[in-house]
Design brief:
- The chain has 338 residues and is α+β, with helices and mostly antiparallel strands.
- The chain contains twelve helices and ten strands.
- The protein has two domains: 95 residues, 2-Layer Sandwich (Phosphorylase Kinase, domain 1), CATH 3.30.200; 220 residues, Transferase(Phosphotransferase) domain 1 (Transferase(Phosphotransferase), domain 1, Orthogonal Bundle).
- 44% of the residues lie in helices and 13% in strands.
- Helix 5 runs antiparallel to helix 7.
- The longest helix has 23 residues.
Length: 338
């Protein structure tokens, strides 16, 4: 969310005081990410300590706070950011139409703003290997979705394609959006078709499913000094083949993390590449583009989305088709397996 949510001026301070005993805390809105249903704040307590507050609206799965807490505390994976419990030992609370979770503030920058060091690449691999090998208690497993290779994203893009054929009215941003879409319509159609084709093959296989973050792009890996790093934003947890996460390493999301040397450093920590399924990697990279395209469309035509959010969505959509970004990587992967 790039614009602050409509909350009363004293609502954040009151909730922090009553739920986390943070009296007289100050909140600074952070315009982060493309998710219009999530808002982020930097919280400063009177004693100088800083915290990160995340607000989510809409459906909420408690596993997105419970699983990171388990990974951090029970599995000892320090790179996983875990929420701080409330005074009643809850990991999140509901207030003013949002689900609230409070975290320590990590002093660093995300992977889009700061390139990982060699040590951080290896550490990221080690952390992800531990996550993929984690054994969750049954109550946590029961609340996690499982990979089904759903057609939801592909069909959503196709619905918009049919809608665009008949023309769509809107403001100047809609006009720019439709012009860009029209210039890339054939390529978009190819991405969606290939995603469907690869999904049909994977449905016939039985790839092992592990715990996956599923949104492990550079924006969700925070990098600090002394090779410290932190994996954040666990909203899209799923049980899926490990390639669901590995697709981001070398996948070119945001035009970064697309160099062979970086992949080699990562796998020094993660382990062998011999069991990585190239077809599954190609599928997830195609499917990610289809998913993002649908979300960009939904955002562009959402009457509640701010102009800033819509402009950012258009910018991100256009960047996907630049050299070295996700579309180019997906084409390369498909050519390699066919």
């Amino acid at each position: 969310m790039l614009t602050p949510p409509a909350l009363p001026n004293d609502a954040i301070a009151a909730c922090l005081a009553s739920q986390w005993r943070l009296e007289a805390a100050r909140a600074e809105f952070l315009p982060l990410g493309a998710d219009v249903d999530s808002a982020a704040f930097r919280i400063e307590a009177p004693d100088g300590r800083a915290y990160f507050l995340k607000l989510r609206r809409g459906s909420f799965n408690a596993a997105v706070v419970a699983v990171p807490a388990f990974l951090h505390h029970a599995q000892g994976i320090d790179a996983v950011m875990a929420p701080l419990p409330t005074r009643t030992q809850q990991l999140s609370v509901q207030d003013h139409g949002f689900d609230w979770a409070l975290y320590p503030f990590f002093d660093g920058a995300d992977g889009f703003a700061r390139a990982p060091t060699d040590g951080q690449w290896s550490a990221l691999g080690t952390a992800l290997d531990a996550i993929h090998h984690a054994t969750l208690p049954e109550p946590l497993l029961a609340n996690l979705p499982r990979e089904s290779y759903s057609h939801h994203w592909r069909e959503g893009v196709r619905r918009y394609q049919r809608r665009f054929i008949n023309g769509v009215a809107g403001d100047d941003l809609v006009a720019r959006f439709l012009a860009f879409w029209g210039a890339h319509d054939e390529e978009i159609d190819s991405i969606v078709y290939r995603s469907e084709q690869l999904a049909s093959i994977l449905l016939e296989r039985s790839l092992p499913q592990v715990l996956c973050h599923s949104d492990l792009h550079a924006g969700n890996v925070l990098l600090g000094d002394d090779d410290h790093l932190c994996i954040v934003d666990w909203d899209t947890l799923i049980l899926a083949p490990k390639e669901r996460d590995l697709m981001f390493i070398g996948g070119g999301v945001g035009g970064v993390w697309n160099q062979p040397r970086e992949e080699a450093l990562f796998f020094q920590g993660y382990g062998t590449t011999e069991t990585v399924d190239a077809l599954a990697l190609a599928y997830y990279r195609h499917e990610r583009i289809a998913r993002d395209l649908l979300e960009f469309c939904d955002q562009m035509f959402d009457p509640q989305a701010s102009r800033n959010d819509r402009e950012e969505g258009l910018r991100q959509m256009a960047s996907q088709f630049e050299p070295g970004n996700v579309v180019a990587v997906a084409h390369r992967d498909y050519d390699a397996i066919t």
